[in-house]
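Bumping my old thread because nobody answered last time. Still need a sequence for this structure:
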């Protein structure tokens, strides 16, 4: 690959380019991106890393630069940092050597300035015209002053030693010696006297020069201070003008969006004009950003400046986005159209929900004594005491996916399906944010157990979960909002204990349907891993990939949850994604972390290739606009570390409520006892419930066998009494889809084939909320 011809660097310029750096004897020289700026030489693996990951930096002020041969040279600071570098040609090497020598000289001068205690203000940066020249003059004057002070010190010493010498010589003159010795002494005295006179003359001349220089220095300092004050005033004025320009630009953008009947035919032809520029003329710092790089997938860089030079396609971009300015417009729209706002209806007193639960007791337990016989077994078949649980069931944990339901509310108001996809993706990621510190295992729901989450008054949605199968464990969930969206899912957990860690693989799909647009989205969950099961502090990681599909439009979003690595310099818990249309064209890039926040940035242009790291693979380079925040995690309540790290919503899930079904998780006695700190009683109650469930299952199997084969009526079914210690194969996607083995018919859900995905799943059949209104729970089984 040929290198572009770079101009010979001028003093103060930032110099960038590719060099080969020696790494080790295995990899040899590796290509790295080097940046020389402000007396510092830094290097990165790729250009995209400049925004967040620097691999190394060396200060040139104290560095030694040595040339080895026609292309190689070495930079060392005399300590632990030594860079063995190689340029692509001798000419390129000479350009780098010139730039490094100039930068080293400048860095040395700047270091001398910073070491001077008399300098009360920092010198302006290089490359700033007159300010740079004044800085150099000030540096020269301070250097001369320092030298004169050194000479003055030397003069004092000379005077001191000269006087002593004269006194000694005078004493020698008083001694009667031969004439030749007296003559020599007189010569030495004359020479010492001349030396003193000469030294005094030199010092006087230096003092005169210093006085003259100081007189001029005061005048130059006043002029420099005036220039600095003027520059500050100009910067403040420029900032105000930029803000005014931005405000006018936004106002102009909103005023020039024409109705469909009056819009430009060229724009209406395909929905939007060819993208060559953005409506905004803001500077690069305010409008563009360097997005986080996904090392494995793609690279994002700031969009080309040409995208903010032209305002000819304002209405085109606005129509494609479906809004004027990203999330701000969505927030305003949400407030304006929120049916619960004071302007739209009368204020109804909200129920005050609890904000605390009893603190978690500190009970010690030997984990290994329980787990050593369980390696390789399915998690749901291990007899786990409540010491490892949290006082919530898996149904309640599933309902916590609605913690950030506002994202779906905003998505329901989007007119553009690609923008709506961004909110669905953010909602998908947000469901994992509550798990970062939640190392406790939720209670396995009993077959037929339900959990309702009625937040119609506060948040506009209602949610219902039911445990529809026990072998394999599977729960169905249905939530509907009066703000135009429905969420349904059926999740079965395949889990394995591997000794050092526990892997939980969710099976099944999640569906989200928006009523207004009829957009139907579906996706699957990633793998959850609990580390340090035996030794060390427990911690949780999410890893894998998610493909969100819009079955109506064909739009897709590919999300990647990067697994944690001790050796990675990237941000922990990182999530990246790309939103594409049915043709595979990228429109948005998503970035963030699953425990903190997610942002999205609009793709202006994408190219295949680019500088692609050590493995030499081509990656897609996306030019993106400035990122906008999609979602940010709400801080945990005070004292959450003593309350199982529950969020504000999680604290209310097990709060007793009147009118719920007899099968609701809130009525589960062992879970309630654990929440109250009565763990020994909870363990005993848990064993009673599990034994009761095994008895019911055996009876159900007998009935099924009796109906299928009357001749085998007296024959016992397969042994199932050891359900909690039974060794069984791990549930897979195939066994999950093939059907459940419990011969149980769910109360509120029915197993059907999903029309969008073709997969069998449990879909809500209705009737629960009507039964609650009527208080009719006669058909509910007695499971507690």
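Sorry it took so long. Here it is:
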């Amino acid at each position: 690959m040929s290198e572009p011809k770079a101009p010979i660097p001028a003093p103060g310029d930032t110099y960038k380019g590719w060099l080969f750096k020696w790494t080790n004897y295995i990899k040899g020289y590796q290509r790295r991106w080097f940046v020389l700026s402000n007396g510092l030489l830094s290097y990165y693996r790729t250009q995209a890393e400049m925004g967040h990951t620097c691999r190394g930096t060396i200060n040139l002020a104290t560095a030694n630069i040595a040339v080895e041969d026609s292309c190689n040279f070495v930079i060392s600071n005399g300590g632990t940092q030594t860079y063995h570098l190689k340029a692509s040609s001798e000419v390129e090497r000479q350009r780098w050597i010139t730039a490094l020598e100039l930068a080293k000289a400048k860095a040395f001068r700047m270091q001398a300035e910073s070491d001077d205690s008399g300098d009360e203000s920092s010198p302006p940066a290089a490359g700033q015209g007159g300010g740079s020249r004044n800085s150099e003059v000030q540096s020269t004057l301070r250097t001369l002053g320092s030298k004169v002070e050194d000479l003055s010190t030397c003069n004092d010493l000379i005077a001191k030693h000269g006087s002593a010498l004269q006194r000694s010589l005078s004493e020698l003159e008083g001694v009667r010696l031969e004439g030749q010795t007296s003559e020599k002494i007189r010569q030495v005295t004359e020479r010492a006297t001349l030396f003193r006179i000469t030294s005094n003359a030199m010092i006087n001349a230096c003092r005169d020069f210093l006085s003259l220089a100081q007189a001029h220095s005061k005048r130059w300092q006043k002029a420099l201070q005036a220039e600095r004050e003027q520059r500050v005033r100009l910067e403040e004025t420029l900032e105000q003008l930029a803000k005014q320009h931005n405000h006018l630009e936004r106002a102009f953008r909103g005023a020039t969006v024409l109705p469909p009947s009056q819009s430009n035919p060229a724009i209406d032809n395909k929905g939007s004009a060819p993208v060559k520029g953005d409506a905004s003329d803001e500077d690069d710092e305010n409008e563009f950003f360097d997005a986080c790089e996904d090392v494995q997938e793609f690279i994002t860089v700031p969009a080309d400046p040409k995208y903010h030079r032209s305002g000819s396609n304002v209405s085109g971009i606005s129509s494609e986005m479906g809004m004027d300015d990203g999330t701000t417009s969505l927030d305003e729209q949400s407030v304006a159209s929120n049916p619960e706002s004071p302007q739209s209806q009368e204020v109804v007193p909200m129920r005050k929900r609890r904000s605390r639960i009893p603190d978690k007791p500190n009970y010690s337990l030997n984990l290994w004594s329980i787990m050593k016989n369980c390696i390789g077994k399915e998690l749901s078949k291990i007899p786990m005491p409540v010491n490892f649980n949290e006082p919530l069931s898996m149904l309640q944990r599933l309902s916590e996916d609605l913690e950030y339901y506002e994202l779906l509310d905003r998505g329901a108001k989007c007119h553009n399906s690609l923008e709506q996809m961004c909110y669905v993706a953010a909602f998908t990621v947000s469901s994992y944010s509550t798990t970062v510190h939640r190392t406790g295992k939720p209670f396995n729901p009993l077959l037929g157990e339900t959990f309702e989450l009625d937040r119609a008054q506060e948040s506009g949605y209602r949610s219902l979960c039911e445990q529809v199968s026990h072998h394999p464990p599977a729960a169905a969930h249905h939530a509907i909002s009066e703000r135009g969206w429905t969420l349904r899912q059926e999740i079965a957990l395949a889990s394995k204990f591997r000794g050092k860690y526990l892997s939980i693989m969710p099976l099944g799909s999640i569906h989200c349907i928006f009523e207004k647009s009829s957009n139907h989205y579906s996706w699957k969950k990633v793998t959850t891993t609990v580390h340090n099961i035996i030794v060390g502090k427990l911690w949780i990681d999410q890893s894998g990939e998610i493909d969100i599909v819009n079955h109506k439009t064909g739009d897709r979003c590919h999300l990647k949850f990067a697994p944690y690595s001790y050796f990675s310099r990237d941000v922990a818990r990182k999530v990246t994604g790309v939103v594409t249309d049915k043709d595979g064209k990228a429109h948005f890039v998503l970035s963030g972390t699953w425990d903190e926040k997610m942002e999205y940035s609009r793709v202006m242009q994408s190219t295949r290739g680019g500088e692609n790291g050590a493995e030499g693979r081509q990656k897609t380079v996306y030019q993106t606009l400035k990122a906008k925040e999609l979602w940010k995690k709400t801080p945990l309540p005070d004292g959450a570390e003593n309350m199982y790290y529950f969020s504000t919503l999680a604290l209310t899930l097990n709060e007793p409520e009147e009118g719920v079904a007899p099968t609701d998780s809130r009525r589960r006695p062992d879970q309630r006892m654990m929440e109250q700190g009565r763990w020994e009683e909870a363990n005993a109650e848990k064993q009673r419930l599990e034994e009761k469930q095994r008895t019911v299952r055996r009876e159900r199997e007998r009935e099924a066998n009796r109906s299928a084969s009357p001749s085998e009526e007296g024959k016992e079914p397969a042994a199932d009494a050891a359900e909690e210690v039974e060794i069984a194969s791990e549930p897979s996607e195939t066994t999950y889809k093939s059907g459940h083995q419990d011969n149980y018919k769910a109360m509120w859900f029915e197993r059907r084939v999903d029309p969008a995905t073709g997969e069998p799943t449990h879909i809500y059949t209705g009737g629960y909320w009507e039964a609650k209104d009527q208080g009719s729970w006669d058909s509910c089984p007695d499971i507690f």
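The radius of gyration is 38 Å. Let me know if any region looks off to you.
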